Amino acid sequence: MPVELGTYLAFVGASILLLLLPGPTVLTVISQSLAHGRRTALPSVLGVGLGDLCAASLSLLGVGTLLAASATAFEVMKFAGAAYLVWMGVKMWRNPPGEALLVPVAPARRRVMFRDAALVTLFNPKAILFFVAFVPQFIRHDAPFAPQAAVLVVTFSGLGMLNSWAYAALANRARGLIRRPAVLRRATRGAAAMLIAAGVASAFTRRAA
């Protein structure tokens, strides 16, 4: 194995603790689950996995260093992600699920959910900078870099998917306890408001000096 077992277990433990902290990705998964139920879990989780995989890979390929060094690049990516979060929140607010609780989710809609989860995860410059600071701490400098990085990136992406699945399951269970469409609409709009708030908050985050 490219990574020593002790180092790998430490990485897994640290990753789990970090992933448990809810952020824009978790809010997206919860919102989609509240709006459409367990039918959205798989596309959302796969989208999170792809977003994490791309973000981690880009960070280790030098994009993270660029974001850390360039205020302009950081701002562009930050505002793109913030705008996308706000757009998703507004869209969810305007289209609550109450009138279509039993309608199957169309394949096209699943693709949209996959895309939303992937892009929210990817367009978070803080996440890419996090990978730059976090992953190298578990890489031995006297061993080949690429195999170690690949193992850690794939592991983190897999853990991110499991974490998203757990949040989706919890949101779906809460949704199942809400039998009245009017109450579900309010809950979904509450989640939409949280997405909008997360987008606004993201727009005001600052790059570390």
UniProtKB/TrEMBL annotation:
It is a multi-pass membrane protein. It comes from the Bacteria. It holds the Pfam family LysE. Keywords: Cell membrane, Membrane, Transmembrane, Transmembrane helix. The chain crosses the membrane at residues 6-30, 42-61, 117-139, 145-166. This is LysE family translocator. It comes from Paroceanicella profunda. GO terms for cellular component: plasma membrane. It is found in: Cell membrane. GO terms for molecular function: amino acid transmembrane transporter activity.
